[in-house]
Every structure is written in C-alpha cells, then in structure tokens.
C-alpha cells in the first residue's frame, strides 16, 4: 500500500453506512454536509483555517485499489460483490465549497460544505476532519505565538516532539501560514517551500575538546549560519565569552557571527546579560535566539521581564498544541435533496450548543464602509444579502440587534470541486500567508487579543433562523 493511498483512511462506520445505503439503494441520495467547530481553540477569539490543500489532494486521488477491496472482503462476509463494484468505480463526483486557507474563522460557522451522494459524503468525513482539525489547530496556536512576538523571528522546531511525521510537516506548514518565518524540518522545506533555519546541538560542543574550538570549527564550516549554542557548560562564564572570542575573529576575517542560542536557565536574565556582553564587545548585530519549551505565555512574560531575545525556536508546545491538543471540528448533515429541493434537517441535543443549524447554507463576512468586519452572516445559498441595509441580530437573544448600512458581503466559501471536478487553483504558500495577513487586518484588535477577546458575532439570516426555530418546534413537540 502506498503511503498516499488514503481511501481506507476512514472510520469503519462510514464503510458500514456506505454498504447499508448501497444495500437499501439509497447510496445515490444527495446530501449536504458542513464542517465546523463549536469553540474557538486556546480561549482565542478566532482560529486560522488550514488543511484545505491536503483535503483537495486527498479527494482528487481518492480511489479504492484492489488491495483495499480485498481487505474489505476479508473484514465482512456480508458485503456483496455489487458493493465492491461500486467501490471500484468510486470517485468524488460532488461539490465542495470551503473557506480559503489562512482565513480568520470562528466557532459555529460552516467552513467546508459538501454536496454529494451520501455514499461519497460519508466516506470523506473522517479524513477531512482529520486534516482540518489538526492543521487549523496548529495554525491557530502559531497565530497566538506570533501575537506574543509580533516583530521577532519565529522558527518552528517541533519535529522531534510531533505526533509522528505527517503532523511534523503539515504542522510546520500551518505554522508558516499563520506567521512563522521558518521551520527546521528539511522535508517541509522541500515539499512546501518553507524557508529552513537551524543552529547546532549540544552534541556538537561536546564533540570537541573545548567549547571555543567547537564554535571556531562550526564558523569555519558554515560562517553564514553561525548561531552558537552557548549553554553547554556555563552560559555567562564560558558560552558567551567563547562566542565573543570567535565572533571577533570572524569579524577580522570579514565574516559575521549571526547569533547565539540560549536553551536553558533564566532566559530573561541570561539574555539581558549576554546582550550587554555582546554589545560591549562591539557585536551589536549578533542576535539572541532562545529555545526550550517556549510557549506564547512564556514569551509574553519574558518580554515583560525585558528579555533581549529577538528570535525564538519553538517546538513541543506548538506542534502538539499542548494547551489544547484537539480542535473539536465536526461534520454534520444539514440538508437532504428530495428530488425537487433541498430539505433542511436538524440534529437536536440536550446540550443547546450542539443543536445544528439546518439548511443548504453559505457564510458571508460583512464589511462596513471602513472595510472592517462587523459580523459573519450565515444565509441559505439562494438568499441575496441586502448590502444597502442589513439587520443583524443575536441568534439567541434576538432583541439584541443592529442595522448595518452600505456594507460589502464577502462570501467566505469558495467553489473547490463542482461535479467532481476541481475548479479551484491552489494558491502558493506565499499567497496563503499574505492572504492571512490581510484577513487579520479586517478585524478590530478587540476580537484578536490573546486574553479575554471580545466575541465576534456569527449571525444567522432571518430565513436560516426561522428554519431552525421551525424544525426545533417540529421535533420537540
Ligand atoms: N525568566 C523566565 N521567566 C519565565 N519563564 C522562563 C524564564 N526563563 C525560562 N523560562 C521557561 O521556564 C521553563 C524552564 O524549564 P526547565 O526548568 O525544564 O529548564 P531548565 O532547567 O532551564 O533547562 P534544561 O532542563 O533544558 O537544562 C522553560 O519553559 C523556559 O522556557
Ligand atoms: O523545547 P522545544 O520547544 O520542544 O524546542 C525544541 C528543543 O529541542 C532541542 O533540544 P531537546 O529538547 O531535544 O534537548 P534539550 O532539552 O536537552 O535541549 C532544542 O534545544 C529545544 O530545546
Ligand atoms: O536548529 C536548532 O537549533 C534546533 C532545531 C530543532 C530542534 N531544536 C533546535
Ligand atoms: Mg529541551
């Protein structure tokens, strides 16, 4: 089985439902599903959408091999041959709309919409959520780290701690989209064109008789990448003085020491002292890099303490999203085609937050005259959004409302597949990264701040709201 052969990268219940639909001859029924998450991660006011590129390539390549089919045969003797024939001919033939990677997104708004034969829509749920949940989570975490250090260099160092190889590379990509500058993972660099950066480890220092010799030899080999790790023995008594000695020698030779890296101890104190020592030696351009279990909270605190660090290597906390290891994105059916029209469908739950919003819908970002985002607005696909005057109301406390005038309604979901054909051209990673920056500029800082952000409104059109109320009433009578 080749690595990218992902047809069976799905939960068994999807295959069971596919079979049961086929057996009941309902497998060609058209359904509309939506993917969304219910709570912004990390107590942030927003998330950064990522994962679409992987979803697109997954769907384009989605075929069942004979090996896959043989495996399924072994698993369940009730499966009939006609089902396997159906799988042999399988390819995605539906419609998929999604927000672009790098979009600033919010809880409870539809991010991906699939209209397809239920046979197809069920199969892809698991993989689609797998990609969206992880990559959106890491991009959102990276965005918090970027906020903690708005002007500094951010390097993703997580591979050794990542939950396996896919997480390392797709996480590196997600971090880059949301504002990181580089990754240490060379494969992510090669695959996605992310700039790569690296220093050296303690082992390099330990491999030489003296620390000074290790720095000197490293500088001779790689003068343009000379960042010396100074904490192997004693940062201020040995590491920094040795780095200065070698840095001055390099200067005489017309080369320049790029930086030093601190990887233990009190990073505030050590960086302040090291900065003084470097400056006094005339090495003002030498950058201080820090690493060691860093996180956005730690970075904010180090800055408060006056740390002289302008470059950060961040591994474990970012790549494992340690403070929230999963984004709870879900995939829910919202409409059924009855041969004539799409009938909205609802999932009721005792937990009010889990009640779905029914209907074949899309989502708009409502921009005011100044180009700032006022709210996101969920409407049925065939609704027109009035741009001269639009009434927005809180879907729970409907008496809370406001009228916005002369707005622009930007549809966030783009057509990606139509009738099974890709109609979306994949943007370059640089385009995604700069689109993300534009996205951030649409919002007032109140919604973006790391601590206790002001909630951004996700509103429903009157028609969507009424549809939800009608179905709620119908099913709870
Ligand atoms: N001045 C500081 N204020 C707040 N947090 C800091 C400060 N300096 C370092 N830290 C953070 O505190 C934690 C210290 O972790 P730990 O005690 O494991 O490291 P260490 O003993 O310094 O180094 P190591 O065990 O890697 O040799 C790290 O997450 C580090 O980033
Ligand atoms: O701390 P992270 O954010 O995950 O960043 C990556 C870490 O990986 C490296 O060393 P490693 O942790 O492997 O060894 P060390 O703890 O002995 O430095 C590096 O020195 C960082 O400390
Ligand atoms: O380049 C580095 O310093 C680096 C890379 C990965 C993990 N730790 C450190
Ligand atoms: Mg460490």
Automatic annotation (TrEMBL):
The keyword Transferase belongs to this UniProt entry's keyword annotation: yes
Single GO molecular function: nicotinamide phosphoribosyltransferase activity
Post-translational modification: Transiently phosphorylated on a His residue during the reaction cycle. Phosphorylation strongly increases the affinity for substrates and increases the rate of nicotinate D-ribonucleotide production. Dephosphorylation regenerates the low-affinity form of the enzyme, leading to product release.
Positions of the Nicotinate phosphoribosyltransferase C-terminal domain: 361-468
The Nicotinate/nicotinamide phosphoribosyltransferase domain, residue ranges: 154-333
This protein's pathway: Cofactor biosynthesis; NAD(+) biosynthesis; nicotinate D-ribonucleotide from nicotinate: step 1/1
One GO CC term, this protein: cytosol
EC number(s) given by UniProt: 6.3.4.21
Protein function: Catalyzes the first step in the biosynthesis of NAD from nicotinic acid, the ATP-dependent synthesis of beta-nicotinate D-ribonucleotide from nicotinate and 5-phospho-D-ribose 1-phosphate.
Similarity annotation: Belongs to the NAPRTase family.
This protein's name: Nicotinate phosphoribosyltransferase
Lineage, uppermost ranks: Bacteria, Bacillati, Bacillota, Bacilli, Bacillales
């Amino acid at each position: 089985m080749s690595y990218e052969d992902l047809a069976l990268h799905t939960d068994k219940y999807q295959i069971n439902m596919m079979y049961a639909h086929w057996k009941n001859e309902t497998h060609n029924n058209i359904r509309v599903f939506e993917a969304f998450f219910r709570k912004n991660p990390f107590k942030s006011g927003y998330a950064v959408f990522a994962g679409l590129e992987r979803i697109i390539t997954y769907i384009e390549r989605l075929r069942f091999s004979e090996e896959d089919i043989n495996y399924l045969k072994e698993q369940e003797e009730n499966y009939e041959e006609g089902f396997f024939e159906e799988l042999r001919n399988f390819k995605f033939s539906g419609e998929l709309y999604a927000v672009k990677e790098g979009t600033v997104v919010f809880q409870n708004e539809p991010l991906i919409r699939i209209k397809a034969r239920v046979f197809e829509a069920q199969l892809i749920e698991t993989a689609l959520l797998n990609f969206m949940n992880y990559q959106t989570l890491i991009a959102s975490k990276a965005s918090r780290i970027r906020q903690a250090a708005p002007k500094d260099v951010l390097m993703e160092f997580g591979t050794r701690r990542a939950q396996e190889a896919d997480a390392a590379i797709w996480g590196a990509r997600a971090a880059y989209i949301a504002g990181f500058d580089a990754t240490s993972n060379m494969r992510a660099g090669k695959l996605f064109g992310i700039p790569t950066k690296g220093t050296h480890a303690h082992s390099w220092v330990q491999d030489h008789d003296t620390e000074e010799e290790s720095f000197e030899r490293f500088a001779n080999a790689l003068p343009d990448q000379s960042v010396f790790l100074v904490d192997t023995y004693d940062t201020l008594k040995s590491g920094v003085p040795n780095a200065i000695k070698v840095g001055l020698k390099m200067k005489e030779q017309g080369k320049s020491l790029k930086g030093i890296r601190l990887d233990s101890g009190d990073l505030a104190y050590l960086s302040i002292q090291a900065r003084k020592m470097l400056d006094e030696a005339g090495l003002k351009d030498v950058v201080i890099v820090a690493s060691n279990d860093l996180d956005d909270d730690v970075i904010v605190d180090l800055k408060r303490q006056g740390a002289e660090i302008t470059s950060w290597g961040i591994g474990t906390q970012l790549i494992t999203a340690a403070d929230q290891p999963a984004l709870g994105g879900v995939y829910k059916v919202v409409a059924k085609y009855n041969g004539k029209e799409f009938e909205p469908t609802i999932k009721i739950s005792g937990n009010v937050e889990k009640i779905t919003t029914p209907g074949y819908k899309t989502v708009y970002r409502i921009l005011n005259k100044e180009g700032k985002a006022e709210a996101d607005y969920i409407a049925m696909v065939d609704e027109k959004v009035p741009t001269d005057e639009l009434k927005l109301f809180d879907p729970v406390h409907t008496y809370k409302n406001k009228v916005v005038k002369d707005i622009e309604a930007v549809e966030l979901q783009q057509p990606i597949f139509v009738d099974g054909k890709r109609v979306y051209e994949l943007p370059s990673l640089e385009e995604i990264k700069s689109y993300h920056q534009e996205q951030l500029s649409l919002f007032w800082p109140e919604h973006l701040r790391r601590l206790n952000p002001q909630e951004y409104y996700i509103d429903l059109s009157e028609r969507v709201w009424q549809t939800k109320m009608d179905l709620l009433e119908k099913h709870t009578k």
